[in-house]
Every structure is written in C-alpha cells, then in structure tokens.
Amino acid sequence: MAKFIFKMPDVGEGVAEAEVVEWHVKVGDWVEEDQHIVDVMTDKATIDIESPVSGVVTTLAGEVGDVVAIGAMLLVIETEGEVTEEEAEAAAEQIEDDMSDAPTSEEVAERVEVETPDASDPEDAIAAAPAPSPAPEHRAEAKVLASPAVRQRAKDLGIDLAQVKPAADGRVRHADLDAFLAYNGGFGAAGKARADETIKVIGLRKRIAQNMAAAKRHIPHFTYVEECDVTDLEELRAQLNAARGDRPKLTMLPLLITAICKVIPQFPMINARYDDEANVVTRYGAVHLGMAAQTDAGLMVPVIRDAQAKNLWQLAREIGRLAEAARTGKATSDELSGSTLTVTSLGPLGGVATTPVINRPEVAIIGPNRIVERPMFVSDGMGGERIAKRKLMNISISCDHRVVDGHDAASFIQGVKRLIETPALLLVD
Length: 429
Prior knowledge:
The chain is 26% helix and 25% strand. It has nine helices and 20 strands. The chain has a six-stranded mixed beta sheet. Helix 7 packs across helix 8 (312-327) and helix 7 (252-263) crosses helix 9. By secondary structure, the protein is an alpha+beta fold.
C-alpha cells in the first residue's frame, strides 16, 4: 500500500487559493479513478475535481468553507500500488484542461436579482418556489431522490419525504420541503416545529454576498419609479401571439427590451460602466442586456448581445435559448459576461415597486413590477372622461448617482413609458 498526496492543482493564472464548496467523499471512502471528489471555487471559476487514482481516502484538507492554497495538500488516498510523479502531474494537467471553459464565479455572482426572464410576464410566469400539492402522489421512501442534508432535515422535522412533491426532475430539495411546510402551516407529519438552521455562507452565495456588499458600499444608489398603462401593450402582445405561427410566444420582456433599446440612444449615460479605480466612464453604443435567471446552481444572468439589433421574435427566441442554457448549466463564459445594462423582474411577485441593486460596474438596473388592474379615468373620445378598467405596471430604475442624474433617469423612464403606452411605435424602425 502507498499513500498518494493529491495537491490542489493550479486551476488558473493568478489564482493562489480555492475554497472548498462541497466534499463528495469522506475519510474511509473508497474512490475510483476519475471519480468526482470535491467542488472548489476560486475568484475565477467553480471547479469539479476528480480523483487521479483509486484507493481509500485517509485525510481531507479541511471542511466546507475552508480555503486551500494552490499546491497544498487537498486529500490523501491510500492506493494499492505506487503512483509516479509523472502520473500525478498528468492528472493535474487534465483537471486544468477540463475547467478551462467553465463560467467564472465573478461573472455569475456579480448579478444581484433573482428570477427567470419569462417571469416578467405575469400571465405566464411561474413562481420560483415549487407549488405544494394538497394530495401528492405517495412514493415509497426508499425511492425518494434527495440529498443527505434534505433527508436529515426532513427527519428532524418529522416529515415523510414520500409525502413531499418533488421538483420536475423527481428530486426533493429544500425548496420542496419549504413548500410542504408552508402548505401544512409550518409543521411536519409529527407536528414538530421547523428546526433552527445554521447555514455556512460559502461558494456562490458567498460571492454574491461580497459583490452585493461592494455594490452598496461603492455606489450611491437612487431609485425612480413610474407607473405605466400597459393595457394596449398587452392587447398588442395577445394579437402578435395569436399570429405567431411557429415562432416563440412573446412575453412582456421582449416588448420592454425593445422600448429600452429605442430610448437608450438619447440617454447614453444609462448604458454605461464606471471604472471607479481609473475614474473612467465608458458609454456603450450597443446594448448588451443582462437578464436575471434562477437556476439550481444559483444566480446566473445570461446576456443578450446587441439587443438593439434584434426584433421582437429574435429577442423572444434568444431569451428562451439563454434561459435554458443557464438552467441546464450549459451557458458559456461569454454568455454570462459583458452586460452593459441589466433588467431584473420578480414577475407576479414583483410588488408595487422595487429598489434593485446595481450590477457593478454598470450604472443602472431596470425592474418591471407586477401588472395590476385598477379603475382609471380615461378619455371618452368626445372631450370628456370615463372610468375604465386598465392594466397598470410600475417600472423601477436604480442608478449610480455619480454617473446618472435624477433628471436623466426620470426622462429615460418617461421615454420608455411613452413607447409602452403607444405600443404601435415599437414596431416602427
């Protein structure tokens, strides 16, 4: 028997250390060559590391959340034969090659709001939390797919996992337990109150926390909110969808993006980035629009390149493609970076108004809110007024006051409002 010391590989230029996000093995486990053993996160990427040899794990470098220096011991594996230095180096090089195309954690975590792009359409949006079912199909406990942490939590709460409706892939997650508890008044099958939890902030959530804190610390935010009548816009959307043929269904988002892109040329300071270290503002001619999406892996904001050059149907198709790529973990680094302006929506959960946090180093973020129906005074066409039921939606914009003045932000949103309330103009080049 021989002990093989597996050191933290060099996972990228300029990277000196990596944080342990999740161990997939424990001391005493037998591992096979190429078996997934640990997830680590650096400032550059999230990396799945595989074992270069087969054997028994005898030592782990640390616990989840600990930081391991490049070249330091990651774990020790007791093997049945000797592992040459050349074999170890080849394994490390293979790991470096495998992570070369991974999206960077900075690109993923710098976004600050959570929701699927389609959620901007209140009629078609699906809430992020899975909806509970009052009478879920009973499944044998042994066949329930769930992580050890979910199983332990369910046990602590006295919940039979077979009674919990799983996600679409059949796996029960913490969100499914939350939905079950919410439906049952916060109690499990045994009538026990939900246990307190202490959750270590690690990995992607840690990066998000750091970037949000940096955005609030460095950027003097201000938020402007305007109410828009979207009754006619919704009618136009319905007409376009009725005649769409094999084209993708239009949600509110492509219409809003089109309005934004038409107004942006008059307000170039909105579509910009501010390098506060170099004290330089870059105003962009093209609109590379980020759209926030919720995935099992956490926040991802794929970017619609040259949104100003796309028509409604092209935008709808690109939104669907990028959202699917983000949800399935297939989005590339290029698709998750380089945005010049971000749109974030909570869809039907959007409330009356929001104060979104700017995606640094951008200088503005736009948040459409929930559509509501209310009685309004409208023209009767004969010089008088009448009361009619109208669909209303507030649009929020948060701006960096170092770059964008309040008057400019208000004027920009007023321009978007005019197009939204006269939707035929959206179809005019």
